[in-house]
Design goal:
The structure is a single chain. The chain has a four-stranded antiparallel beta sheet with strand order 2-3-1-4, with helices on both faces. Helix 1 (32-46) runs antiparallel to helix 4 and helix 2 (49-57) runs antiparallel to helix 3 (64-76). It has one domain (15-231): Transposase IS200-like (Alpha-Beta Plaits). The protein is globular and about 55 Å long. The protein contains nine helices and four strands; from the N terminus they run E-H-H-H-E-E-H-E-H-H-H-H-H. The longest helix has 21 residues, at 107-127. The chain has 234 residues and is of the alpha+beta class.
Length: 234
């Protein structure tokens, strides 16, 4: 039988929880550069080409030849800025989680195939290895309802708690979208408006919602926990 959530239900305009880990539970991010490279691929794929090209042209640290090379390479890449809306993310040493919306029925499949293949090529070249980096295909859970959407963002943003040193605050973890949510950091390719407007009308802040431990109304739903049981404690 195929693993749970490996057989995916794709619908237009659907919301999804996407996650995967390293083969044999190995680390897929070994240093700061690895995290930065993965995030740079998200930025490249999710930023409209016209905006990325404009940024290149305005970069005074590049000469015309370098600008032309970068623009040429950019135009060769597939772009998903009108196909994928990334809501939140976290990169952990041996796994990652993404919460996103796809517009077309096949957009997630194409996006994840491009992202994972590109990062695997980078990783294998850097560390002089061959073969698969990730444990099979990514897992995908179709999300229904605003409550599930919001609770999932909390689950994703709480992931770093398991590796933070004593005394470190949650927002100090750089490799996730939580700092952007609570520090009002603008990232064009991150769609915070799917979550934050709810808290503009609420009596609690998003930070309080995520970091609360006692209020049962703010806990991750039992349904979400059950959906993740097959992940074998990444």
């Amino acid at each position: 039988m195929p693993a749970k959530n490996s057989v995916k239900t794709y619908i237009e305009n659907g919301y999804y929880h996407i996650y995967n880990r390293g083969v044999e539970k190995r680390n897929i991010f070994l240093d700061e550069q690895d995290y930065l490279v993965f995030l740079s691929y998200l930025k490249i794929y999710l930023t409209p080409n016209i905006e990325a090209i404009d940024a290149i042209n305005k970069n005074n640290n590049l000469d015309n030849e370098d600008k032309n090379i970068k623009i040429h390479r950019l135009n060769e890449l597939k772009n998903y800025s009108e196909k994928i809306n990334l809501i939140c993310y976290v990169l952990m040493p041996n796994h990652f989680h993404l919460e996103l919306q796809q517009i077309g029925k096949k957009d997630i499949g194409n996006f994840m195939q491009s992202l994972i293949a590109k990062y695997t090529v980078y990783f294998n070249k850097k560390y002089k290895r061959v073969g698969s980096l990730f444990q099979g295909r990514y897992k995908a859970v179709l999300i229904f309802g605003k409550e599930y959407l919001i609770n999932l963002s909390k689950y994703i943003h709480l992931n770093p708690l398991e590796i933070l040193a004593q005394g470190q605050v949650l927002e100090s973890y750089s490799w996730n979208s939580y700092p952007a949510y609570i520090q009002n950091i603008k990232i064009k390719w991150l769609k915070k408006d799917y979550i934050l407007p709810y808290f503009h009308e609420s009596k609690i802040s998003y930070k309080d919602f995520v970091e609360s431990e006692n209020d049962s109304d703010k806990q991750i739903s039992l349904e979400l926990k059950k959906l993740l049981l097959d992940y074998d404690r990444v």
